[in-house]
Amino acid sequence: MKTEKILIIGACGQIGVELVLALRKLYGAANVVATDIRDEHPLLTGTGPYYTLNAMDAAGTHALVKKENITQIYLLAALLSATGEKDPGRAWDINMQSLIQVLDLGVQEKLTRIYWPSSIAVFGPTTPRDNTPQDTIVEPRTVYGISKYAGELWCQYYNQRWGLDVRSLRYPGLISWKSEPGGGTTDYAVEIYHEALKNNTYTSFLSEHTYLPMMYMDDAIRGTIELMEAPAEQMKTRMAYNLAAMSFSPKEIAAEITKHLPDFTIKYAPDFRQQIADGWPKSIDDSTARLHWGWQPEFTLGNMTTDMLKHLKEKMQVA
Fold first, then answer.
1. Choices 3.90.25.10, 3.40.50.150, 3.40.50.720, 3.30.2010.10: CATH for 174-214+246-316
2. Catalytic residue chosen out of the listed positions 74, 144, 188, 216
């Protein structure tokens, strides 16, 4: 069996850091090449090959694929929802151009597989918000969501026209202690743990009863790898798969934190991100992913909170 040689573009982001480490453990450090436009993340230093690469640099990406004999690409570079609304044109250019370049490269170099993440941001206010189905009304109202849905269609197109094996997941909000949030609307669910330990209080930019689908990063990384390792015949859709684990509100995550930190308090000051969140699903139906390739989450709000606080206390050196 041929050894896969994997290129990660956008390796220093919230997903990228942990995905690189997991893939290096699985495939061997030398077989997972990490790249980003910024300096190497401290958690990646010394764990395997790293290059500085702009995701928009088609020629540079192609040269690196040839140099390292790359067989698979994970394209993670993107401007996220809240950041993208501040500069929609730039967000569209980065999110779309980088994808088209990688898809063209995949066809040209006959790559075995490409991974590109989508998001629950593809859904909008006209989508059924409770238990949002795999196939439903899709009318996103943010440039991030528009770019992600367009990207799903491009991935499907390249698969149907050229047989390119492109795979994708619609991530919910992702929560991790290892890396900082990257400008998303669900970032409050990461910030709240940091502020609870530092200041014993947090001001949420979403209202107390705003329910959103969420997932612990450990589940997201495992789900991504399981998707990519599944046989091609199990990929019954070439749009992105819904992926889910839990749904909760700022009030509920605060209540869970007070089980560990009884004096913790939360306040609410909704900002422009509230309007974005109000257009997204409250919960996700991921039964298609469960049926097609056996997806099963492991973390709930309870055991995630226990794990987050444990690791953040060690990281922040808090008693």
1. 3.90.25.10
2. 144
